[in-house]
Design goal:
Layout: H1 6-9, H2 12-21, H3 24-35, H4 45-51, H5 59-75, E1 80-86, E2 94-98, H6 107-125, H7 144-167, E3 172-173, H8 178-184, H9 192-212, E4 221-224, E5 228-231, H10 232-257
Parallel strand pairs: 3-4
Antiparallel strand pairs: 1-2, 4-5
Helix pairs in contact: 2-5, 6-9, 6-10, 7-9, 7-10
């Protein structure tokens, strides 16, 4: 899940919501609704409204619920097919609709999708007037310019991770808190066009690097935060999941601000 939820996830409410949403039986419910073309979050809407009425006035909590449902579905290989499927009710008006079945994607396809991200983001940016580039959404979320700066900088993080795994034996890969990075680097004060151009150039270099990695190298491992072993292929696929998260958040930002 996006690091912007790390602090909320550690709260009592965050832990309770995660316990409700992230279970094997929930995936079955989410997947069943996906086969019917219905937003996954609708599976738990009534239970959330009954057991957690306080989140009606807590935008971050509601956003976290949507992100948790997305994390469960992506973990099982489903892709977003509709960013805003209607839900209806006191808590959620819309939610992401996922593919009816898990999508098996080859490594080459993953790299191809990664290469398409700058054009996709540029199209989303084009929907926003310049007056809204630095407007933050309700709850926990990035302004448009912050999204672009974050995508640019996270590509550098992934480039460094993959380089370390290719050249060292089981290197330590430390997680990055994107929200902290946004404050430290002053994303809100940066130029959006410059950030988009830098992201486009950096992603092109990164995809070239990914495309040159030999199949036998893809199984090399790094150690995430001292506990989780991740292969190079895991890292590349994780970056695609990260892209999908931001595309969904950009759709949500547009729905709120435009």
């Amino acid at each position: 899940m996006h690091s912007r939820f790390d602090q909320f996830r550690a709260t009592a409410l965050g832990r309770q919501l995660e316990a409700l949403l992230d279970t094997p039986s929930r995936y079955v419910e989410f997947a069943a609704l996906s086969r019917a073309g219905v937003a996954a979050i609708a599976a738990v809407h009534d239970e959330l409204a009954l057991k957690f009425p306080e989140i009606g006035d807590h935008a971050t909590a509601r956003q976290f619920c949507g992100a948790m449902a997305a994390e469960v579905m992506r973990r099982h290989g489903h892709e977003v097919v509709q960013a805003r499927g209607r839900v209806g009710g006191p808590l959620f008006s819309y939610g992401a609709v996922f593919s009816a079945q898990p999508v098996a994607m080859s490594y080459a396809n993953v790299v191809e999708r990664l290469g398409e991200m700058p054009d996709a983001v540029s199209a989303q940016v084009g929907r926003f007037p310049a007056s809204l580039w630095k407007r933050k959404p309700e709850g926990t979320g990035f302004a448009l310019v912050e999204h672009l700066c974050h995508l640019r900088d996270i590509d550098e993080v992934f480039a460094a991770r993959v380089h370390a795994v290719r050249t060292k034996k089981l290197p330590l890969l430390e997680s990055v808190d994107g929200s902290v990075l946004a404050v430290e680097r002053g994303y809100l004060g940066q130029n959006l066009d410059d950030a988009l151009a830098a992201f486009r150039a950096g992603r092109a270099r990164l995809c070239q690097t990914f495309g040159r990695i030999k199949p036998e190298q893809l199984a090399r491992c790094g150690l995430r935060d001292g506990t989780l072993r991740m292969t190079i292929e895991d890292l590349v696929r994780e970056l695609l999941d990260h892209d999908r998260t931001h595309r969904l958040e950009l759709d949500e930002l547009a729905a709120e601000l435009l």
